Amino acid sequence: MTPDEATGQPRVEEISTHLLRVADISNSYCLASGTRGLLTDCGAGAPARLREALSVQQYDACLITHHHRDVCQGAAALAKMGVPIWVPEHERHLIEEPELYWLTRRVYDSYNDRSTYNSLAEGVPVAGSLEDYSTFDWREYEIRILATPGHTWGSQTFLCEIDGRRVAFVGGLVRDGGRLQTLHDTEYSYGGWEGLMQMHLSLRNLIREDPDLVCPAHGEPFDDAVPQLELALERIERTTKSIHQCPEMPGRFRAVEVTPHLIQVPDACCTFYSLLSESGAGLFIDYGSPNWFHFGVGQAWGEPREVQRFTLHSIPDIRERYGLTNIDAVIPTHYHDDHVCGFPYLVEHEDTVVWCHESLTEIIEHPERFSVMCLYPNGVPVGRSFRDGEAHQWREYTIRTWHYPGQTEYHCLILIEVDGKSVLFTGDSVFKEGAEWTSPIIFRNAFRPDSHRRCVGVLRQLPKIDLICPGHGPPVAPDDDWIDSFEARTERLLGQFEELLGRDQLGPGVDPFRVRIVPYTIAAEAGKTFRAEVEVRSYAAESQEAVVRLSLPDEWTCLPLMQTLDVPAGEAARTFFRVTPPEVIKPVRRRIITADVTLGDVPLGQAAEAVVEFNGPRLMLR
Fold first, then answer.
1. What pTM, to 2 d.p., does this model score?
2. Is 622 inside any structural domain?
3. pLDDT, tens digit, 9 for 90 and up, residues 132-154
């Protein structure tokens, strides 16, 4: 159920005598007892405005299923009305005190993929925690609290007998049709599918409860509950069995000759390469941490605000063993910290120039504009940008690059003829796993539904490849049918994603950045205006109108108050605002601003955020 087409206002629907639904940016539900009501979730706040339509004089409480803004954005309005807000015990801090989370949230070198970024910008007074497997008694109703992680780590489901039916309020766990609302929210660690695996167990536990009616945060309530839950379970099983990530490659430092003039360092954190000229000059493909032990601080166990500490490695050995005199240039396959954290050292201490494909230029120079995974905070200037397939000469070698959105949107392939062999440097986006050729899927690397299909198109343009040199692991000679294998896996997974999400939901279901604020990390000063751009991407078949507003802290101002833009079908469009914080800022270093978007006739709510840092960006090492 969508908002009323004539008025644009949320609709109220009677599900049964004592149960009503409000269709806001997400579904919220009202359990009625006489003139009193109890809410589960509250969307953008529609229940606060619609008490009369719900025939409720007073809300006694609002129970929140999980911390995402789309289900609790309106909690502040309810709290101001005196409504007690009850929240999952494991996510209370993200609702009651999100300011502390935002102060310490990692932007760079982050390997925590959990969707905690979708927390409120400002805290809401909380009446209490909903403990897993406890009961919440309200008037004549007993509500059981189930632990159902998956959509988020702390998600809960509320079970209650209402009008003779066992009703399950599942939040974002599942939606109607045996599908999910998103896949990207199930990715907890980098490249991990922990949420999907936990969701599998949660669905099994919910099926054992044998609900008669399931009330999800998105989609329609459904009363053929168990068959639809089992269908979702089957689809999750098929998807998880199809997904494999490339293995880690730890080991001692070694330098290995791929060909007489191409040196691989296989045991560095990323496998990087040194191309040697007869003159003694070198060109590096990637250059990151020396090994996984150094790199570990960038993993999920790193302390807040820590970033990669680069330590010199490999260069002295290559000089000694192979006669390297200088490093003319370094080319990144992609922006990830394990591949580029040595770039500032090369630029500053080796007089090396950074070259890259044009699709990487902005993120290499200005990482603060992005919120994708594995960012390294130190941008470096790019001396030369390449277009798809253009030939560029370095010493006796010809270099060609192509945009290749595999593991990340900001990735390229590099093709060089070395010692009579056609060598393709593939970074983290081409691997052979068993009999299949694959590229990892990392949703918060700006994955889009057509990402890997675009990769297939690039691979079909290439000449015959003799050697593939990946960013992790040894070089390998590709099979004759390697591109066909890659395409077959791509189509199988996309088909399963579409089956799991639904065709209309495929785009936003895999793309967490269909709305974003640029730059993501904004260096601001009290009382001084800064510019914030909002980018909106459409997955509709026709162009759509987007209405964009910024939600700001109290006493902040922006011009204009609202922007309308036309978003072409399948593309992105941008608009901008000028934002002015007050002359006196609370003694915090970070504040959050959000973009509230309606795309076509669908309100998305506060679909994107940006981090505003005062007194200089606290995560930048300059």
1. 0.84
2. no
3. 889 999 999 999 999 898 999 89
